[in-house]
Design the sequence.
């Protein structure tokens, strides 16, 4: 069915990834089976409204922007998300997908930039990482993000990145759990690594109140 359960659609700046700072339309889908300890979008776990693809497109078209990100929750928990990305790709949109990596990415449209948020130990959901997804990443467009909140997370990032040679598969981003790890410590760690990690901050949380929705 060409329908999605949507929490919100809004226009803002891209706050993360290598596209940080660009105007972007966000389509946030409802629902997520994960319960990360540091989750900042718990309001997307339930509720939402059912919208057809055409209804979502109409809302997207009301904004002066061609960059669209599908996010959640966990967007791929809704099977129709895959079809929706194809639907938007056919309309000529530049597309991004924020996914936990707990759902298969093999059938995500090849024009979509995937930001796969591999879970670290402090998230309490690292067991959800679907490692076979790594083989489907494309270094020319895709990114792997690690959210870190402690030294154990940093050790894990180093171990996993080396084990799977992630630097050959995708751009590697390291993001702090907001207000949880010293930024200078994280910066030093990134500089000391032999792999090409890129530190990022959640820009929107520094522009607007961190608890603000729809930004």
Sequence:
């Amino acid at each position: 069915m060409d329908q999605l359960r949507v929490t919100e659609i809004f226009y803002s700046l891209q706050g993360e990834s290598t596209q940080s700072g660009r105007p972007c339309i966000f389509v946030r889908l409802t629902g997520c089976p994960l319960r990360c300890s540091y989750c900042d979008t718990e309001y997307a776990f339930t509720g939402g409204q059912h919208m057809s693809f055409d209804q979502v497109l109409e809302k997207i078209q009301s904004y002066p922007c061609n960059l669209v990100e599908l996010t959640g929750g966990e967007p791929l928990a809704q099977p129709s998300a895959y079809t929706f990305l194809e639907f938007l790709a056919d309309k000529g949109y530049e597309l991004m997908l924020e996914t936990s990596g707990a759902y298969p990415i093999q059938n995500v449209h090849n024009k979509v930039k995937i930001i796969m948020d591999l879970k670290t130990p402090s998230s309490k959901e690292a067991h959800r990482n679907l490692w076979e997804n790594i083989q489907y990443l494309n270094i020319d467009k895709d990114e792997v993000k690690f959210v870190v909140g402690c030294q154990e997370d940093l050790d894990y990032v180093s171990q996993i990145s080396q084990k799977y040679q992630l630097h050959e598969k995708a751009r590697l981003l390291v993001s702090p759990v907001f207000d949880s790890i010293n930024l200078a410590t994280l910066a030093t760690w990134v500089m000391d690594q032999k792999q090409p990690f890129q530190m990022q901050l959640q820009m929107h949380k520094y522009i607007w109140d961190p608890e603000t929705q729809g930004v």
Q: What stands out?
A: Residues 95 and 112 are 5 Å apart (CA to CA). The first strand starts at residue 3 and ends at 13. The beta strands are 3-13, 23-29, 49-52, 67-71, 94-99, 113-118, 143-148, 171-176, 197-199.
